[in-house]
From TrEMBL:
Secretion signal, residue range per the UniProt entry: none
Organism: Ensifer canadensis
Superkingdom, natural source: Bacteria
One annotated GO biological process: N-acetylneuraminate catabolic process
Name of the protein in question: ROK family protein
GO molecular function: N-acylmannosamine kinase activity
Family matches, as InterPro entries: ATPase_NBD (IPR043129), ROK (IPR000600)
Pfam name, any one: ROK
Length: 285
């Protein structure tokens, strides 16, 4: 009997674009590229589809998870520091034309939340997923239902009425790299973690400051939603030592108020696995 076609999954974040062929939640092949961060999203997507042209004919539907908000198939940024996307970019139309297949699109962190809830560290319990990445995204699953729209956009919480600074502007990978620039020119967030690991005090302070803010966010999420689990992913969230720093910052909390923190088990595949499952179910958010 002929094998069922796979789903083409795309996870387009502020730093990288990950494409994968996924069948029955199994990632068969992946291709990763840096997100260009300049020019037009149609050009980024064209470059990605050129790079995966060898997969043509192996998929019959597409799931696209993107940083930013997707309304009626149109993609917009909430924070242009994370990725500068023109307002209401026609995402599903453009990907539909490039792939020739039906397309389901959603926010990247919500898709990853669904992946972790269904097949990873969420264990199919009420959960909140947090990605600490270029920005800070999130997804909420309650009673088996993934909340769509703006729900889970914790990185957009405002800290300050006067400046409109967002939480992610003081926590995320983008912030970590910016803070490091006076110590090491053009340092990436990854290089800051390496410097902290090598014992550089300035780098350790930046990483700790970010982890403490994330711990505070987890405390507040627990009070708002009381999830069974908070699952943390993203390049920063899963960087060595980050979760331990969050746990340390939560150390003194009374047990009833303490969030149950878990590392994302699907790692960087959470988004592609989650959006593949949503596309297979044709589950619009
Ligand atoms: C921002 C926001 C979210 C996204 C989150 C993580 C934009 C462009 N993105 O809060 O929609 O989920 O970043 O995105 O406004 P990532 O690119 O860091 O994975």
């Amino acid at each position: 009997m002929a094998q069922a076609q796979a789903t083409l999954s795309i996870d387009l974040g502020g730093t990288k674009m990950l494409a994968a062929l996924v069948r029955d939640r199994t990632v068969l092949e992946t291709h990763k590229m840096a997100t260009p961060r300049g020019g037009d999203p149609a050009e980024w997507l064209q470059a990605l589809f050129d790079a995966i042209a060898m997969w043509n004919g192996r998929y019959d539907k597409v799931g696209v998870a993107v940083t930013g908000i997707v309304d009626d198939g149109h993609w917009s940024a909430l924070n242009r520091n994370t990725l500068d996307i023109p307002d209401r970019f026609p995402l599903t139309d453009v990907v539909g034309a490039l792939s020739g297949s039906p397309v389901l699109a959603a926010n990247d962190a919500q898709a990853a939340a669904w992946g972790e809830f269904s097949f990873g560290a969420g264990r199919r319990e009420d959960m909140v997923f947090l990605t600490v990445s270029t920005g800070i995204g999130g997804g909420i699953v309650v009673n088996g239902r993934l909340l769509g729209g703006l729900a889970g956009h914790f990185g957009q919480f405002r800290l300050d009425e006067a400046t409109h600074h967002t939480l992610e502007d003081q926590v995320s990978g983008h912030w970590i790299a910016g803070e490091a620039s006076v110590h090491q020119k053009d340092a990436t967030a990854r290089e800051v973690f390496a410097a902290a690991d090598a014992g550089q005090e300035w780098a350790r302070r930046i990483v700790e400051a970010s982890a403490r803010q994330t711990a505070l966010l987890c405390r507040n999420i627990q009070l708002a939603l009381d999830p069974k689990r908070i699952v943390i992913g993203g390049g920063i969230g899963l960087a060595p030592g980050y979760l331990t720093s969050i746990e340390r910052a939560l150390g003194d909390l009374p047990p009833r108020l303490k969030p149950s923190i878990h590392a994302a088990e699907l790692g960087e595949n959470a988004g592609v696995v989650g959006i593949a499952d949503l596309a297979e179910r044709q589950q619009q958010l």
